[in-house]
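can u do me a favor
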């Protein structure tokens, strides 16, 4: 259970489904509630597939290119910190994807994979965290628990997107802005943790 909660908490702040709400509402404003819910469900299923694939296969990709996991964690930490700084800035939710991508999404019938699943929900930061969760010391049970954590994250993200209209009316712009700043602070802390843990592993645990 601890592994499930740790996976969920590590990824939730980076995925930030609350940050995806404004873009999701913009892209689905002319759709029926049933179709909007279907798009949210498909996007969350795609997110599970993307994060699970990178969690299971990411280490082999790194080995193929000769990249150490600590190198990835430092690079991922920098990306996560940048995302955290963006969330702390006003209007951060709109900056997660470019206006061109939003405009292109308005012309598409199916927005579940792009831009909703990629890059809104499972962007570079979430992918970096997913790869960073894999270590050679994990047992098969640990890996299953991490995958369950990813599925739990997708379920919560679906609920948030499904009820995004109600949440937006209830929280208002001020509430969403405050939530964005809180999430930004948490994401920033996760990025710092990634970098510090990687540097400690590089300089204090590895031997030539």
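np, heres the sequence
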């Amino acid at each position: 259970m601890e592994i499930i909660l740790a996976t969920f908490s590590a990824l939730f702040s980076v995925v930030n489904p609350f940050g995806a709400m404004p873009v999701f509402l913009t892209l689905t404003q002319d759709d029926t509630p049933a179709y909007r819910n279907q798009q949210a469900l498909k996007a969350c299923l795609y997110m599970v597939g993307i994060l699970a694939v990178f969690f299971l296969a990411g280490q082999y990709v790194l080995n193929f290119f000769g990249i150490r996991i600590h190198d990835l964690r430092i690079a991922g930490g920098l990306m996560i910190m940048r995302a955290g700084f963006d969330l702390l800035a006003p209007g951060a939710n709109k900056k997660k994807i470019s206006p061109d991508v939003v405009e292109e999404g308005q012309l598409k019938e199916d927005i579940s994979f792009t831009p909703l699943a990629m890059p809104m929900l499972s962007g570079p930061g979430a992918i970096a965290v997913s790869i960073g969760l894999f270590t050679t010391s994990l047992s098969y049970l640990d890996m299953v628990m991490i995958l369950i954590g990813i599925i739990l994250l997708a379920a919560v993200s679906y609920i948030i997107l499904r009820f995004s209209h109600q949440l937006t009316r209830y929280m208002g712009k001020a509430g969403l802005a405050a939530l964005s700043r809180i999430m930004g602070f948490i994401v920033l802390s996760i990025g710092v943790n990634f970098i510090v843990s990687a540097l400690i592993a590089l300089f204090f645990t590895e031997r030539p």
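The chain is about 85% helix and 0% strand. hope that helps!!
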